[in-house]
């Protein structure tokens, strides 16, 4: 469904494209969420675990920046992961204002167990596009994302 906005051709095209990009992203996220939902993880919780699994210990500020979330939101998500013993937090020895977040062995085991199915779901979703189309879409998304 495109926009019903009655504006200039430039406005209608931009809004229509924005709607399509947003709906496509949300549709893909919805269809690939089954794996994380079965593991009783929210999208944000999974993203934090995945980041820590691949990148190692990060500060809460670094996590917020990487995931494009507010530090307040990240704090709540981390607290919930900490309650499940999936991450642990420690004050930075260099700067007491920063909390360092690490994945625990339980968190590592959980993410290692669900990551292959999650990746396969994404491969399946992206499989509707050819390899060249995927590269083009990736380049266009990067261009949009780096605009600011």
Describe the fold and architecture.
- Helix 3 crosses helix 6 and helix 4 packs across helix 5.
- The protein has a 3-stranded antiparallel beta sheet.
- Helix content is 68%, strand content 8%.
- With 148 residues, it is mainly alpha-helical.
- It has a single domain, classed as Winged helix-like DNA-binding domain superfamily/Winged helix DNA-binding domain (Arc Repressor Mutant, subunit A).
- A hairpin with a 7-residue loop joins strand 2 and strand 3.
- The mean pLDDT is 92.
- The protein contains 7 helices and 3 strands; from the N terminus they run H-H-H-E-H-H-E-E-H-H.
Keywords:
single chain; 148 residues; mainly alpha; Arc Repressor Mutant, subunit A; three-stranded antiparallel sheet
Number of strands: 3
Q: Specify the CATH class.
A: Mainly Alpha
Unreliable stretches (pLDDT < 50, length at least 5) are none
Mean pLDDT: 92
Order of helices and strands: HHHEHHEEHH
Radius of gyration: 18 Å
Indicate the percent of residues in helices.
55-70%
SSE topology sketch:
Blueprint: H1 9-32, H2 34-38, H3 43-55, E1 58-59, H4 60-67, H5 71-83, E2 87-91, E3 99-103, H6 105-126, H7 131-145
Antiparallel strand pairs: 1-3, 2-3
Helix pairs in contact: 3-6, 4-5
How would you sum up this structure in a few lines?
The chain has one domain: Winged helix-like DNA-binding domain superfamily/Winged helix DNA-binding domain (Arc Repressor Mutant, subunit A, Orthogonal Bundle), CATH 1.10.10.10. It contains 7 helices and 3 strands, in the order αααβααββαα. It has helices spanning 9-32, 34-38, 43-55, 60-67, 71-83, 105-126, 131-145, and strands at residues 58-59, 87-91, 99-103.
């Amino acid at each position: 469904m495109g926009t019903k906005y009655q504006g200039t051709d430039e406005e209608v095209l931009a809004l229509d494209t924005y709607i399509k990009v947003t709906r496509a992203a949300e549709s893909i996220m919805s269809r690939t969420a089954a794996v994380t939902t079965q593991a009783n993880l929210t999208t944000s919780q999974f993203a934090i675990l995945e980041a820590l699994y691949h990148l190692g210990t990060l500060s809460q500020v670094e996590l917020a920046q990487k995931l494009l979330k507010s530090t307040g939101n990240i704090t709540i998500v981390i607290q919930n992961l900490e309650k499940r013993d999936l991450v642990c937090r420690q004050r930075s020895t260099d700067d007491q204002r920063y909390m360092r977040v690490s994945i625990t062995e339980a968190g590592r085991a959980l993410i290692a167990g669900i990551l292959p199915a999650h990746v396969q779901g994404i491969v399946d979703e992206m499989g509707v596009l050819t390899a060249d189309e995927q590269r083009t879409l990736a380049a266009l998304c990067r261009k949009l994302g780096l605009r600011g």
